[in-house]
Write a structure and sequence with these properties.
The chain is built from 10 helices and 14 strands. The protein is α/β, with parallel strands linked by helices. Helix 5 packs parallel to helix 6.
């Protein structure tokens, strides 16, 4: 059996294979609520044969959205909409599904990517004031964020906990805490964006404090059968920024706290980044972290071919593979990978007529 198609356990959750659908924002929500686009999009991905689906970044507060069209999980209306989406998906698929929760910080209040993606100032329609560890804008021409106060930090922790509780109440199997790609928790980690002089800034211990506090609060509040993973950027790709050495220290602390997996990406913190983009360019980061922790590590980033994904697992560089743009381009990527590698994936009986090698029926009640 190819490594890619062997089961894997993330804490209380067992996946049929090691293909994970990475969270990808659709910028198609209204007032934080998922819309018909999300029904067809996630319904399609739930029939892909992957081992787990991660729903796109869902903001823990309205001001934490990347854009005005982001999904939210800050109130009962958001919870009910996501719950209905999951209920409909689960009629025809038993693929484990979780939700990524996060706060965009200084990278909030932006336009949709296809409309330019730049910051929308508070004075413009669909714009608002942003906040961050320090009053340092993402782009030099952006409106500077307001430095978050300590009472607001305490409230932010409660917002993350409440969001996790809503995700569980909606019926999902777990959450992924978004501490990557230059969003708020990552902003606290990096010395480039965090110039605070209090217990949340300065030393590595202080800069890690908020993420670890959020993680601990969620783990203390949610039951043990609810999976909690974390996504990080292992490096800013900027000299003097967050880097692999600091990520190793963070990973070990999360591991000791019972983190169920670490999803290793990189970059996104500042425009000065110099990313050596190419196939497997983030895999060495995952490999270095995997060598230091016992929890599973997910590799992601320009992993596009089945043989490539299989080699990463066979060589012990990661425990699972996440697909993002590749599975948008080819939503049946796991089917084709199974056919190439001589394995099997589960599919609904409605698709049996295509009968490629490696496809078997999954009968649903």
């Amino acid at each position: 059996m190819p490594h890619l198609f062997t089961p894997i356990t993330f804490g209380p959750l067992t996946l049929a294979n090691r293909i994970v659908i990475a969270p990808m924002c659709m910028y198609s929500a209204e007032n934080g609520l998922v819309q018909p686009w999300h029904w067809q999009h996630y319904g399609n991905l739930s029939q892909s044969g992957a081992g787990m689906l991660i729903i796109e970044a869902s903001a823990v507060a309205p001001e934490g959205r990347i854009s005005f069209a982001d999904v939210g999980i800050w109130n009962i209306h958001c919870q009910d909409a996501l719950g209905k989406l999951l209920q409909d998906i689960r009629r025809d698929s038993d693929m484990p599904a979780i939700v990524q929760i996060g706060h965009a910080g200084r990278k909030a209040s932006c336009n949709r990517p296809w409309d330019g993606g730049g910051q929308l100032p508070p004075a413009e329609a669909n714009g608002w004031n942003t906040l961050a560890p320090s009053a340092i804008p993402f782009q030099a021409h952006d409106v500077a964020p307001r430095e978050i106060t300590k009472p607001e930090i305490n409230e932010l922790v409660h917002q993350f906990v409440a969001a996790a509780q809503r995700v569980r109440a909606a019926g999902f199997d777990g959450i992924e805490i978004h501490a990557a790609h230059g969003y708020l928790l990552h902003q606290f980690l990096s010395p480039i964006s965090n110039h605070r002089q209090d217990e949340y800034g300065g030393s590595l211990e202080n800069r890690m404090r908020l993420l670890l506090t959020v993680f601990d609060a969620i783990k203390e509040t949610l039951p043990q059968d609810f999976m909690v993973g974390v996504r990080i950027s292992a490096t800013d790709w900027i000299e003097g920024g967050w880097d692999l050495e600091q990520s190793l220290a963070l990973a070990q602390l999360l591991d000791q706290r019972g983190c169920h997996y670490l999803h290793v990406s990189s970059g996104g913190l500042a425009p000065q980044q110099q990313i050596p983009v190419g196939p497997d360019y983030q895999v060495p980061l995952a490999q270095a972290i995997k060598a230091q922790v016992s929890m599973p590590v997910i590799a992601v980033g320009l992993i596009t071919e089945p043989e490539q994904a299989e080699a990463i697992l066979a060589n012990g560089q990661a425990d699972a593979i996440a697909l993002a743009r590749g599975i948008l381009y080819n939503p049946r990527w796991p089917w084709h990978a199974a056919a190439k590698l001589g394995a099997e994936v589960q599919a609904a009986p409605q698709y049996l007529r295509c009968q490629p090698h490696g496809l078997k029926a999954l009968l649903h009640r």
